[in-house]
Design goal:
Layout: H1 6-17, E1 23-26, E2 37-40, E3 43-46, E4 52-53, H2 56-64, E5 75-77, E6 82-85, E7 91-94, H3 101-109, H4 113-136, H5 143-149, H6 153-159, H7 165-172, H8 176-184, H9 202-210, E8 212-215, H10 220-232, E9 236-239, E10 243-249, E11 252-258, E12 263-265, E13 269-271, H11 275-282, H12 290-298, E14 304-313, E15 322-325, H13 330-338, E16 352-355, E17 368-377, H14 393-407, E18 416-422, H15 424-431, H16 448-451, E19 462-464, H17 475-489
Parallel strand pairs: 1-9, 6-15, 13-19
Antiparallel strand pairs: 2-3, 4-8, 5-8, 6-7, 10-11, 11-12, 14-17, 14-18, 15-16, 16-17
Helix pairs in contact: 1-10, 1-17, 3-4, 4-9, 7-8
């Protein structure tokens, strides 16, 4: 197993339970991959995902590998789920239960807003029923995958693969704030709503129908719990081990070679590394991967993120667990991130996302807060004109983000004890994700999902798991990728 990200750990737990002897090789000194954690002076921060959606996926993982999830972590359903504030100052407090969402929208945005959103989610629910089984829980098989979706013409009409998320919003949502809200869900796959497929409307449906959940003590504990489960089932976790190449013998994967020269033989290699890095660096030159490399080159990389970890003194009245502050011109943000109208560039007036759990485990005392602040950002690509390591850039942009927060009503500049800045370049260095792309490739374009690398590689015995492979990034999907890979490998 290459990499101890959450997808790799989940695959290790399943494969160990199935009787395989599993060794997990992780380059860093901790498990979890992008499900990171930072702690200093009693302040703690999740540095990756900040909520769990579709928790049934993890409950199924733990049940299948020995004992319930709740034996290891405490899941807390968030209610309210998110505090939104639009550019004109309009607030929307999103309830944590689907049946209360329409009323909250009517209260915030006027009569009829809730009915518009409910109609959209009705369509999204139908999309979810059509696509969940044949796509999200099944290996990607090119034309065969399309054929499964196309057996019923009504299903094709429901999913509308020709329509964008922005187009779907225009068909259902008259209120501009609702369209802005829907656009945000494209970023859950690192994408642009003007190009992302309409089926991404399933993301808000899943979030609101099945809830937004927090792990008490921080989401990093979920990664630790999955690692512990894999170890209990017999997996060996080796940290500080950088894989230099996948060994190919007799035309199939036969193990890996580490940076120090050690060879680790294996009948099967499962890679949780970024797919672009895998095919470019770990199995370079194999003619069988030519098509996979070509598809990755044709796909648009996902956006990245610019992060501030803020250790604050004092408390913020009425602060939600999650707060999203929208800009005046959302399209300008996507133009900057994806390089429309010029090279990719930092967003001048970004959407700002704040995660500030009211969790005593994340702060040193009752009169303090620990904020994870994220803005969408272009990936680190010096050759393409976006160099996040340019002298002074990170500090200047951090100041700008704090100024934007202040203009939108959350001025914490005089409360900062200290801050840590993390750029897309830092994410690339820490996780191996090329350019710091959070989700590998984006979902920009109707064919984007089918350009995402399949779980079974063209090299026999080599499998892909995690956010850069099918079915995609995000906590639920990486666990589903592990389930798919375990099924492809089969029992020992």
């Amino acid at each position: 197993m290459v990499g101890a990200g959450l997808g790799g750990l989940a695959a290790a737990a399943r494969l160990s339970t199935a009787g395989h002897r599993v060794t997990v090789l992780e380059q860093s000194d901790r498990v979890g991959g992008k499900l990171g954690w930072f702690e200093r002076d009693g302040h703690g921060f999740d540095t990756g995902p900040s909520l769990v959606t579709l928790p049934a996926v993890y409950r199924a993982l733990f049940t299948a590998t020995g004992a319930p999830l709740e034996d290891r972590v405490e899941l807390v359903r968030l209610d309210p789920a998110v505090h939104y504030r639009f550019a004109d100052g309009t607030p929307l407090v999103m309830p944590g239960a689907l049946d209360r969402v329409p009323g909250a929208m009517d209260d915030a945005l006027g009569d009829g807003a809730g009915a518009q959103w409910s109609a959209l989610l009705g369509r999204a629910a139908a999309m979810w029923r059509v696509s969940e089984g044949p796509f999200l829980r099944t290996p990607l098989q090119g034309a065969a995958t399309l054929a499964r979706l196309a057996r019923n013409p009504a299903d094709v009409t429901t999913v509308a693969p020709w329509q964008t998320l922005r187009g779907l919003g225009g068909a259902y949502l008259r209120h501009p704030h609702l369209r802005t809200l829907l656009d945000r869900y494209a970023t859950y796959s690192g994408s642009d709503p003007r190009r992302a497929p309409a089926v991404l409307a399933t993301v808000p449906y899943v979030e609101q129908a099945f809830g937004s959940w927090y792990v008490r003590g921080g989401l990093h504990r979920l990664g630790e719990a999955v690692a512990d489960r894999a170890a209990e089932r017999g997996a060996v976790l080796r940290l500080g081990c950088t894989v230099r190449q996948v060994l190919i013998e007799g035309g199939r994967a036969a193990g890996v070679e580490l940076a120090g020269g050690e060879r680790v033989p294996a009948d099967v290699v499962v890679s949780g590394a970024d797919a672009t890095a895998l095919y470019a660096d770990l199995v370079p030159g194999d003619r069988r991967t030519r098509r996979a490399r070509r598809d990755l080159a044709r796909a648009r990389p996902s956006l990245s993120g610019f992060v501030l970890l803020l250790a604050l003194c004092g408390r913020t009245p009425g602060l939600g667990h999650h707060t999203v502050l929208f800009p005046e011109d959302y399209d300008a943000e996507f133009d900057a991130v994806f390089g429309r109208g010029g090279p990719p560039r930092p967003v001048a007036d970004p959407t700002v996302y704040v995660s500030a759990p009211d969790d005593a485990a994340l702060r040193p005392d009752a009169d303090s807060e620990s904020w994870f602040v994220l803005v969408n950002a272009p990936r680190h690509d010096p050759a393409g004109g976006m160099d996040w390591d340019a002298p002074g850039l990170a500090g200047r942009y951090a100041d700008r983000v704090l100024d934007v927060l202040a203009r939108r009503g959350l001025d914490v500049r005089d409360r900062v004890r200290w801050r840590v800045v993390r750029t897309p370049a830092d994410l690339e260095r820490e996780t191996g994700s090329v350019g710091g792309s959070i989700y590998g490739t984006s979902s920009n374009g109707a064919r984007a999902a089918f350009l995402r690398p399949a779980n079974a590689s063209p090299v026999p015995g080599l499998f892909l798991v995690g956010g850069s492979a099918h079915p995609g990034g995000g906590l639920p999907l990486v666990a589903l990728s592990a389930e798919i890979v375990a099924g492809l490998v089969g029992p020992a």
